[in-house]
Amino acid sequence: MDFSMIFFILVAALSVGAAVGVVASRVAVHSALFLLVHFVTLAILYITLDAQFLAAAQVIIYAGGIVILILFVIMLIGSQPFTGRAGYRTWVPFAGVALGLLMVAGLAYAIVQTPLMPATLPANAGGVPEELGMFLYTQNILLVELAAVLLLVALLGALLLAKWPKAERIVN
Amino acid sequence: MNNAALNLDVNALLPELSMVVAAVVVMFLDVFNRGGRSVTRPVLPWVALLGVLAAAGASVWLLGQPVSTFQDMAIADLFAEGIDLVILVATGLSILLSVKYIPTVNPQTGEIYALLLLVASAMMVMGSAIDLIVVFLALETFSLGLYILSGVNRGNALSSEAAMKYFLLGAFASGFFVYGAALIYGATGATQFSQIGMQVMSGQADLNLLYPGIALLLVGFGFKVSLVPFHMWTPDVYQGAPTTITAFMSVATKAAAFAAFYRIFLVALPAQQPVWGWALAILAVLTMTLGNLAALRQTSLKRLLAYSSIAHAGYILIGLTTGTPAGADAALFYLLTYAFMNIGAFGIVTLLEQPGQMDVDISAVRGLGKRRPLLAFTFSVFLFSLAGVPPLAGFFAKFFIFGAAVQGGWSWLAAIGMLNSAIGAYYYLRIVVDMYFAEPTEETAIASKRSYAAAFGLAIAVVFTIGLGIFPNLWTALLEGGLNQIAMR
Amino acid sequence: MITVPYLLSIITFLPLVGAVLVVLVPGDAVKKWLAFLFSLATFAISLLLWTGWQNGAPGMQFVETAPWFPQIGVYYTLGVDGISLFLVLLTTLLMPIAVYFSMLYVKKSIGAYMALMLALETAMLGVFLSLDLVLFFVFFEASLIPMYFLIGEWGGQNRIYAAVKFFVYTFAGSALMVVAILLVYFSTGTFNIVELQFAQIAPAVQMWGFIAFALAFAIKTPLFPFHTWLPDAHVQAPTAGSIILAGVLLKMGTYGYLRLARPIFPQAAVQMGPIVATLAVIGIIYGALVAVKQQDIKSLVAYSSVAHLGYVMLGLVAFNMIGISGSVLQMVNHGLSTGALFLMVGLLYERRHTRMLDDFGGLWKSVPLFCGLFLVVALSSAGLPGLNGFVGEFAIMQGAFIYAPIFAVVAAFGVILAAWYLLTAFRKMSQGEITNEENARGQLKDLRLSEVLMVLPLVVLFFVIGIFPNLLFDKINPSVEAYMAQQSVRIEQGAPMTGLSLQLPDGLALSNE
Amino acid sequence: MVPTNYYLILGAMIFAIGAIGVLSRRNALIIFMCVEMMLNSVNLTLIAFARQWNNLNGQIFVFMIMAVAAAEVAVGLAILIAHVHHSKSINIDDINVMKW
């Protein structure tokens, strides 16, 4: 077992542990912190896959942006403790877990069927921002345009939902 | 690098572009509101409608052009333009219905119309997409827009609940979709449909990854078009969203998602038809049957129409099950007629809604035939058409879908579909019974809203619901009289 | 000789034009008379079919065709032959009578009522005239909507239940027919009903197709276990609705069987023949026995319809010259007799607002004219020799005897039962002493001239057909002969049917592209 | 060098853990985080495949998923806040996911 393998297993274990932490935490803040750890471990794995640019993006967008936003919302609405409700069907979580395990078993089985190993070592082109940028802005320009529309939609949406209408303020 | 790759055929996406431009114009015009008095607000729906008309013009113009592609990412073939027209019909009718309705829900109409146009343009991109990444981006764009639009009624808990539920389940479903896309990419090394198709055909694809990929893709798709068992969000969201938005999404979402999946299945995975064909057939049977049975028990008009739209998704799915271009054409016609009749039906609901109420109980239509004969007549036309009674458009829509099924050797599926439409007739008929044969109650005594724009929209819908039933070839004549519109690239 | 271009289209759509006009014009009186005029005009124009008829020609006459949806082979094709001619004339004749009756007695929103009646006429005529499967189906289903509203809005106590039951039963019945129509199309490549009589269809497809078609028509006819909607619909429908329902609408089932189910799937039909015949005979006996016990005259007539249409089906299944000719004639006879019966019942109901036999008695003394006419109508329905009913039933019995004597023997009991329940009803109503004050001479008015004029054409036709049946047979027979000849050829040519082959066809897909 | 399968199985596991979280947790925020985790597992899978096939489509796809995730978080949290204004609770069961 070479070093890269050991390193992968360690990071993967940390990643899975953090993922379980997100799901299992009682308090939302803890989940968010576990999520942060999880995102960072993934960024490390991206580097081992020769995707340096995406690793950086991962840290900036997910760890730096999304988790912070989630933490901000938790602070805004207050992390409420778990409140039990009558009529809650207790079988639902178990069904969810069973379904999930079934899914991972099936997927793992399918994935293990054919061993995959890159035939040739990549020329380390993919990770370099320049290559990615050229590819994105020439052959995939439509994606950029679409992403622009996507962000415009998100912007409009946030505006629409965040602005409390005047008439309503009077009612409340 | 390779600058030859930059030959952009913008024409191919002209309709989508017109919609985006119209959205931006609406947003700019909305700015002039801020001066205390709303100067431009009454004009906004008509500006949006102009955008829709421009896009429709572009689509019709493209029908006469040879098939063109945008960098192997999007295609402008007859099928794509047909889907564009369906979505534009849905958008246009929804805007007409919204003119009076939306301001009662949320005064920020500028943002709402702009969002509606952007969502529609993303849906249209979905109809032209020939690349998994484009499909994903377009799917996410219009889904995000719809999450927001279903929650714009800020004063209503039901609406924000609907948005919340729709968002969480929609994002969950997107996860499945994109994981499926990833596995298909893993199996073939490509995201373009034609390349995936070539890889699969040549036997180089890794089937162990491809099949789970198709299955996961189907789950995500099932959520978007509300196939049973992925439908649980539909009734709540349809009930909670503002009614004109519900009308829009019940039709346009289906059109966009079905269009993309026709392309994925017909172009990328035709060889796997025996596998996904059966999966889809089972889903179709479940969807039609459970949708119809659940609709039988509803007392809220919006929930009833929601379950009915689940059942209709099942009928449309039959066209996809066959895996033939004839099935795609039949589904296209179905979607068009569905746009007219279903938005029409929801349009009636908007007129019957009481201020502040987001829904109409089925008993509220009692005696409508006596108090508002024209409204009741219009509603019955839509309901009979939804039930598939000739000579209305809904009959021919079913006829073509089942025709494609029989042609493809799925006669039993067509038979189950027809029996289901008989179940459907029962609950549509129940509304007609209440309208004409029941005495008016106190609830119905309250006058329904009147809106010239909505009346205009409903008139268009009625004319086409009857007209496409008597002259169904008007539509195929528009698509150059030929069948098999889907370009195989 | 007048020749009119597009004669069949004019006959079919003239009532629909009338329906639109009736909705548009103001004033109840104007609406009434306009509707009556349109139905009368349709009848007058339809007589051109009689005058312009080429005697002895077996094929379709007055054929019109236009592309409707040519991409998939759907054409707007109309035509009429000896089999459909009299059904068309029956429809156009009964409609003015029904409309006139409604003019006198219907009070509630007359405009909508008349428009629906006229729209219904268009749908019914379309069924009998269309030569394209899709067009046929469109008319077949379209007839449900106006009838549904007629029963549901202007019917009796239980009208909503009856209307919904009527609609859902018949709609569900024809649901499978759509799939069968498509199966037929994809195995023959045509929707044209005339061409389909010559097309060969694989046995497996035939069996499924026949079952689907026969089920739809059995519900419409209605054949024995599928009849339960009929008494409800009849009892609840307004009088004019009942006249049309019994007189014409039910014939769409038997006509469909004769025109489509039988010839398109000949081998399957031969194989399933005994089952259909058995159901028909059960229907004859069952309908008659139930009719005997009815108190409500209208429901008595309704059950008698189940029995009478059993005869028609029996004649069709017998599938010999005399049986089919008899059935075609009997369809017309039943339309006339039962239409007249419902008309008489309606006239009585408008006077007394009851239909229970026990409420009457001794009517002969107070309203002799009514009773005389009623007797003639009842005798016609019971099949008295010299009147129309006898000719058809006799021919059917002969045909059934050739097919299988047992059916004829059992069906003959039905004739006796029919005489029993009709004459019992007549006796209870008219003879004996007047037991109820309201039936007394001064209280109950006899028929007015206008009412007699309504019934009279039908009574005259009873005698004309009863005494000169060849007036009709001359036109019916050539078509039936050609039909028979061409069918027997097909049964010989076709692939042999071995057992009940009910597996789904495999190689069906794309066989015609 | 670590075979691609290892990355794929890790991706599948994280995806399943996320799905389990969505189906079993009742706090809308945690469900939202689980959805983000599912998207991330897809990112990992895609990058692994991109290396496997030695083409950039997978990485472009990941870049787009990141854009989507950013947009989703903005919209999602806005909806969440709007919802909390009404219901004063972020228990998902209050909005009855499993209701038919």
Characterization of the model:
The complex is a heterotetramer of chains A (172), B (489), C (513) and D (100). Chain A has 172 residues and is mostly helical. Helix content of chain A is 75%, strand content 0%. Chain A has 7 helices and no strands. The model of chain B has no long low-confidence stretch (mean pLDDT 86). Chain B is built from 20 helices and 2 strands. Chain B has one domain (8-478). Chain B has helices spanning 14-31, 44-63, 78-105, 109-128, 132-150, 157-188, 193-201, 207-224, 233-240, 243-268, 273-296, 301-322, 325-352, 368-371, 373-387, 393-407, 411-437, 442-445, 452-470, 473-478; strands spanning 68-70, 74-76. By secondary structure, chain B is mainly alpha-helical. The model of chain C is unreliable at 498-513 (pLDDT under 50). Chain C has a two-stranded antiparallel sheet with strand order 1-2. Chain C has one domain. In chain C, a hairpin with a 4-residue loop joins β1 and β2. Helix content of chain C is 73%, strand content 3%. With 513 residues, chain C is mainly alpha-helical. Chain D is mainly alpha-helical and 100 residues long. Chain D has one domain: Helix Hairpins (Orthogonal Bundle). The radius of gyration of chain D is 16 Å and the shape is elongated. The longest helix of chain D has 31 residues, at 57-87. Chain D is 78% helix and 0% strand. Chains A and D meet through α1, α2, α3, α4 and α5 of A and α1, α2 and α3 of D.
Task: Describe how the helices and strands are arranged.
The complex is a heterotetramer of chains A (about 170), B (about 500), C (about 525) and D (about 100).
Chain B lengths: L13 H18 L12 H20 L4 E3 L3 E3 L1 H28 L3 H20 L3 H19 L6 H32 L4 H9 L5 H18 L8 H8 L2 H26 L4 H24 L4 H22 L2 H28 L15 H4 L1 H15 L5 H15 L3 H27 L4 H4 L6 H19 L2 H6 L11
Antiparallel strand pairs in B: 1-2
Helix pairs in contact in B: 1-2, 1-4, 2-3, 2-4, 3-4, 3-10, 3-13, 3-19, 4-5, 4-10, 5-6, 5-10, 6-8, 6-9, 7-10, 9-10, 9-12, 10-12, 10-13, 11-12, 11-17, 12-13, 12-16, 12-17, 13-15, 13-16, 13-19, 15-17, 15-19, 16-17, 16-19
Chain C lengths: L6 H18 L3 H24 L9 E9 L4 E7 L1 H24 L4 H20 L3 H10 L1 H11 L4 H30 L4 H4 L6 H18 L8 H8 L2 H11 L1 H14 L1 H27 L4 H22 L2 H32 L10 H4 L1 H15 L5 H16 L1 H26 L18 H19 L2 H24 L20
Antiparallel strand pairs in C: 1-2
Helix pairs in contact in C: 1-2, 1-4, 2-3, 2-4, 3-4, 3-11, 3-15, 3-21, 4-5, 4-6, 5-7, 6-7, 7-9, 7-10, 9-12, 9-13, 10-14, 11-15, 12-13, 12-14, 13-14, 13-19, 14-15, 14-18, 14-19, 15-17, 15-18, 15-20, 15-21, 17-19, 18-19, 18-20
Chain D lengths: L3 H21 L3 H26 L3 H31 L13
